Amino acid sequence: MKEFLKTLKKSFLIAGAILAMNGCKIDTDPLDRYTDVAVYQNPANIRLYIIGMYNEFNTFKFGTFPIGYDNATDALTDLMKYTSGVSGNGTVNILASDASRVSAAGPQLNYWTAGYARIRRLNEFLEGLDTKAQGLDEGTKLKFQAEARFIRGYVYFWLVKMHGSVILQDKLTSEKDKQRSSEDECWNFIASDFSFAAEYLPKTWDAGNTGRATKGAAYGMLARTWLYAASIAEYDKKQFNADELTGVPAAKATAYYTNASNAAEEVKKLAAEGLYDLEANFASIFTNKNTKEAIFKIDFIRPQLTHQYDLGFAPPKDAPGQVLVYGVPTAELVDEFEMSDGSTFSWSNPAMAANPYANREQRFNATIIFNGSSWKGRTVNTTPSDGVEGITEYGASTDPKKTVSGYYAKKFLDPLNTQIVINKSDQSWMELRYAEVLLIDAEAKSKINDIAGAKTSLNILRNKRGLPNTPSQTPAELMNAVEHERIVELAFEGHRYWDLRRWRKAHVVLNNVRFTGHKGTPVGSSVSYTTVPVDNTNRQFTPALYYIPIPLDEILRNNSITQIKGW
């Protein structure tokens, strides 16, 4: 990796090992600013150009999209509460409680212009490979095409899971006016890009190219794509808007779940070859740059390339007066973690309530900092008696920079980084890891009535996390088990909001509700916990939000496109 950095001379960095972060620009200039000789007749420049395209993954690292703050996507859900109530640090709270903020004039979740700018650049690259590139053997050319289509598939994946029906551009065109394609066509288009990438990308790259997309990454994204398409086919059923182009025919659900499972099986085959594996120590996954759980990731290199995750989420005493504490875990997330023997935690159980954080599963201790946690040589006190790290009521201060739920987020924090202001952070962001693939496989197989196969994938994950086999026996029970596992396994990885949307549960789980925390009160030598609200107004998620409106300026520019009905 160091050798590759020297070679690139700070000009380009790529996803997984060398993506530029914190404003470091890695894009090459548009093709029309280069001569064909400079770009396409020099294989080294072709390589640098596609490396520059990996910058797109920077947009979505650590769940920053669309609000620009780490974990903001999870803060739209029942897993995390942002502590501030004012615009900026608290924008996510404003959006979570006011559905009227989303409109065609201000979609809020807006990637349209940036996404299509990237798609055009990728299509330029693909055309250049076909018509202008010299000095490439056929295998190398196909790898470049596969990389470009992997990135294009990823861009379209984001556009489609927001809008459902979007404009498909598979090549350069001067056509200004074009209608949206159907949602079903869109998911199939994305799948074709990832399928092509899976066919022609290598299983691994050499050390000088670590971090570029691989066969496993393409199959994993293909599995994710088909799972989303299948979920829409099963759960949407045209209940939430009358637009002719949104939705996926319900009859296709089984086939698409099968496709998802088949793609996941390809990743499992690669794991059997030793390319991927689950870690026995869950906490180590998120600070170990060489973890075999990572299928596709963005690495950072201190001091050149860092981020500010620790400063954003560490408990205040890590850097008094400077830590920001953007968001904190909710009680809803905390209560989801099982006991170490696999039994369900319950505050109604007197023994559990008396010592609620003892004997919980390992993912709990790796994800949550709770009252009494040992952290960086101190015992964290989240009761009101600690004026620095203790709980405060949400809304009592506009930007309290301390917990409002009685918890802090531990996952992704670096326990060895004791100078987070000076050092900043260099933990990797994993866009796709092996645990998610197993969960995709379990969900897909439960839907096609492969109960044994679903349980196998689920139990591989649970057993590695130190838990017994799932007791689930029916498809419905397995689906509940999958949702539970996705909550505790993938917390703060940006999946929950999109899961609730694809399952068409967001208008139930995220609407007309206030989420909670746990306030500890010392009682003699013990602590008594009471449930407290972390919201001071109800959350809102209206059914119309399942399809974000096309930005109004695009409607005005394009004479053929129609707005998604309902907006």
Automatic annotation (TrEMBL):
Transmembrane segments annotated in the record for this chain: none
Spell out the subcellular localization from the entry.
Cell outer membrane
Q: What is its main location?
A: membrane
According to the entry, every stretch annotated as the SusD-like N-terminal domain falls at: 73-227
Annotated ranges, domain RagB/SusD: 292-567
Q: Which Pfam families match?
A: SusD-like_3, SusD_RagB
Q: Which GO terms describe its cellular component?
A: cell outer membrane
Keywords, in A-Z order: Cell outer membrane, Membrane, Signal
Per the record, the domain of life is Bacteria
Q: Which family does it belong to?
A: Belongs to the SusD family.
What is the protein's name according to its record?
Starch-binding associating with outer membrane
The top of its lineage is: Bacteria, Pseudomonadati, Bacteroidota, Sphingobacteriia, Sphingobacteriales
